[in-house]
């Protein structure tokens, strides 16, 4: 386990995506095409990463009645874990940009009869959801955002003061001789998942959130969980 914390001077500053940037729109289109294609095979990832996803969600400290925002929900692999924690009185609102993933997530909701779970097909960097949330989670999704900083800022804006955002994601090998594999790893993540090589998830989280702590790391540090907390405003 590797733990570290960062407290920037201005935690409320966030970036705004530029919808006129052709690179931004191309990235979104690649993500839509790619994740529509992988939607039929996501169950492999669902099984392989289940213990890690469960540990990440446990870090949120969810309680019955909580309202939770999920970014990049895919086919809804986290829904059962979150709903078990928030109960029937809570609310889970999920976002994904792939229509096929959203369709599968909605099928999962319908099969289980979860009337307090909803899914929106939308760009997480720009979507505006009514109300605020007690927690937010993103598993294997932040590093494929077309503008990581804007996506983090949008999550921060939707969170209540003092509440948590937990991210489980992938990155190049951070240190040691295994870094020799990073060029291949970057290529593979770009090819397989439309990973954003210009986006730095940890740097974006630390720039926006006052408190940001890396917890569990896996596979030479290429997979990691980070727990962020939104500061409490002086008026509260």
From TrEMBL:
GO molecular function (one): methyltransferase activity
Protein name per its UniProtKB record: Class I SAM-dependent methyltransferase
Organism: Natribaculum luteum
Domain of life assignment: Archaea
Pfam families named in the record: Methyltransf_25 (PF13649)
Region listing for Disordered, in residue ranges: 1-27
Residue ranges occupied by any Methyltransferase domain in the UniProt entry: 68-162
PANTHER family: TRANS-ACONITATE 2-METHYLTRANSFERASE, TRANS-ACONITATE 2-METHYLTRANSFERASE-RELATED
Transferase is among the record's keywords: yes
Annotated keywords: Methyltransferase, Transferase
EC number: 2.1.1.-
GO biological process, any: methylation
Keyword Zinc-finger appears in the UniProt entry: no
InterPro entries per UniProt: Methyltransf_25, SAM-dependent_MTases_sf
